[in-house]
Structure formats: C-alpha cells, structure tokens
Amino acid sequence: MFQDSLHSIPDIVLGSIDDLQPTVNFASHAEVPAAEQWGPRIIPDYQLFCLLSGEAEISIGQEQYTLAAGDSALYGPHCPHRIIARMGAVFIGIHFAYRQPSPEPVHPAFSIEACSEEKLKASIRPSYKLELPNKELLELPPFFTKPDLKPILMRIVKEYMNEQPGYRILLRSLMTELITTLVRSQLTTRPRSPEQDKIDPALQAINEQPEKNWTVNELAALCGYHVIYFSSLFRKCTGDSPKQYLINERIRKAKYYLLSGEKMDVIAERLGYASVHYFSRNFKEETGLTPTEFKNG
User: What is the domain range of residue 180?
Assistant: First the structure.
C-alpha cells in the first residue's frame, strides 16, 4: 500500500537521461525469513528493491509503505531508510549509480552507514528527477508496481554473479534499459499537465498529418489561442517552436520509413516534401547525413 507524504519533498536532479552512465555496484536475488531487517541505514548509492514474493515494510524518512509481491521501491543516498520482512520474502536488490565514468562495481558495503531511529524519523524522502530532451524534469517513481521488470532484473543479477568477460559494460547496458523502461512507463501513466492539454489538438494534428505544411496560425486556431500565446506555450511544453516540432516529426518518421525499406520518392511524398531533392536536403540539414547514408549505415 503506497501513501503520499504530506511533507514538502526536496528535489534532486540526476542529470539528463541522454547522459546516463549507470554502474551496477551490487545485485542479488535472495530469500529471507520473517523479521529480517536492514537499517535504519544510509547507503552510498541508489537501490532498487523489488519484492517477488512475501511482504515487507519499508520506511524512507518519515514515510512508511507496505510492499507486496510485484512492488518495488527506489531510493538513494540522501535519506535514511529501513526495510523489514513481515513474512518470508524473496526479493531482488540492485545497488547502482546513475552516472559514473567507470563501469567497475564498487560494493556499497564499504560505505553503508548505520543511523539512529531519530535521524530516520526526522528526514524527508527526496524527489529524484531526470531531465528529458525537452528540458522537462521527470520524477522517478519512489514506489511502483511493475512485475514485468523481473526478467531484466534477473539478467542483471546473473551478469553480476557470473562476472564473464564484458560483464561490466553489459551491466551498464542492462541498467540503462531498466532506467529507460521506468522513464517511459512514468511518461505514459503520469497525469497530463493543463498546459499539455491546451496544445494537444496541435500535437495530434501534426502527428496525424505530418505531410501538411501547418502554419502557426492554423495550429493556434485548432487550440483556440492567439498565435503569440500559443507559440510561447508550445515551446514551453515541447522545447521547440511549432515549425521545428513539425520538422522533427517528419524526420523521425522519415528515419522509420527509410529503415523499413521504403523508397525515397514515396517517403518524400508521404511527408509533404515537394521533391526528393528537397527531402534529401532537409534530411541532411537536420541529421548531418543524406537519407542514403543514414539508411546504409
């Protein structure tokens, strides 16, 4: 059972999602008896604790949560915590850093600190956020239910335990996939902001008809706003002007069509370009490569 805190939660920005260099420091798949306890303690890195079976109670700062099978908790070095198995439990625990130049694991046990019950109760759980490409900050979920993560978590544990050649860089790759999966899940389930709702007709129009040479006036009219207000709101929500957003959407679709084997003249017509020449020129301006260079790799 997850409950929101009534206290103000401090923000910790972890950097851009495109700059992630995660390092797995420790990974285990374990079974523990009832009453097994970790903490109160402070860890030197981040931990994803995924409960596969049983029940556990976790306290992070002033908040308490009960985890059931399939539930996970994500927390870091900035706040004391305690975990107690309320019945026999099976779990996966991953200690990691979000950004570390070296993929070499550093075992957290070297720097785990015990803390007092008073310090645990006096602390406040931070809000961990990643910066998206449009400069928006996305909060990572501190508690979530996502049973489909088990396969990738088990792969991380297996790689960490076996230490086969290349395991460090493969752990980095798997952890990047795991974090990206969490980010995408969070994007699809979070409530839409009022600002995003205001420009949704324009975004839908561009997505459905990227071949149309939409003007800012037309897109603003779809949303029912003055051009100046609409343009400012659009940039705030997407990080781009309406014109650049339309170009980006065309290029994104063009890449997909090229890799799917479609001919350039068909792609150019489908995306509203007057000619293959104009399509190729625009594609190179945006990507640095001609469509043929991009397709052939």
Answer: 11-189
